[in-house]
Amino acid sequence: MRLIICTLFIFLFNPSVGIADESENVEVVRAMIEVVNNRNLSALDGLVASDVVRHSAATPGVVVTSLEEFRAFLEADFKGIPDSVQEIEIIFGSGAFVAVRARYKGTQSGPMGPFPPNGNSVNAPFMAILRLDGGKIAEIWVEWDNINILTQLGHFPPAEN
User: Fold this and answer.
1) Are 128 and 103 in contact (CB under 8 A)?
2) What is the C-alpha separation between 90 and 100, in angstroms, rounded?
3) What are the structural domain ranges in the chain?
4) CB 13, CB 35: distance < 8 Å
5) How far apart are the first and last CA of the chain?
6) How does pLDDT run across 30-79, given as a tens digit for each residue?
7) DSSP 8-state assignment for residue 157
8) Beta-carbon neighbour count of residue 25 at 10 Å?
């Protein structure tokens, strides 16, 4: 009975029990960004949950509910902007969550959806919140300004017909 009471006391008065250390979570997110920048997508297995879910109003038609779909999303991005990199500007953790403000940079040398390659560059900020579970990224919320990116790449405003 004492063991049950002590365990209950620890969980009630120490909400971080069962959650990885915030600095460990931040390092997992840093490592994931490095893996993506280095195009080492097989290394995502150790960093991202197999049932990861990605949310983004910036890509409303893109559904990501697994690690394989996340890899496919990244590979499609690499086709449009093969030299893309993400540079962390601000990162911090709180409990199971990590917040990131980063910068996406690269040159469009491949098609991006309906937009043909044109050699223009992009340098745009984005923000993400990631939830970790068991030391792996389980959920991602990421947003950016599509008009800013399309303008930099020369696709906005649309050409007149």
Assistant:
1) no
2) 6
3) 19-152
4) no
5) 77
6) 999 999 999 999 999 999 999 999 999 999 999 999 999 999 999 999 99
7) S
8) 25
Q: DSSP class of residue 46?
A: G
Rounded distance, CA 50 to CA 46, Å?
10
Q: CATH fold of 19-152, please? A: Nuclear Transport Factor 2; Chain: A, (3.10.450)
Number of neighbouring beta carbons within 10 Å of residue 122: 19
Q: What is the pLDDT of residues 99-128, one digit of tens each?
A: 999 999 999 999 999 999 999 999 999 999
Question: Which uninterrupted H or E stretch holds 76?
Answer: helix 67-80
Q: DSSP 3-state assignment of 16?
A: coil
- Residues 103 and 64: their CA atoms lie apart, in Å, by 22
Which amino acid belongs to residue 23?
A: S
Q: Is the CB of residue 44 less than 8 Å from the CB of residue 29?
A: no
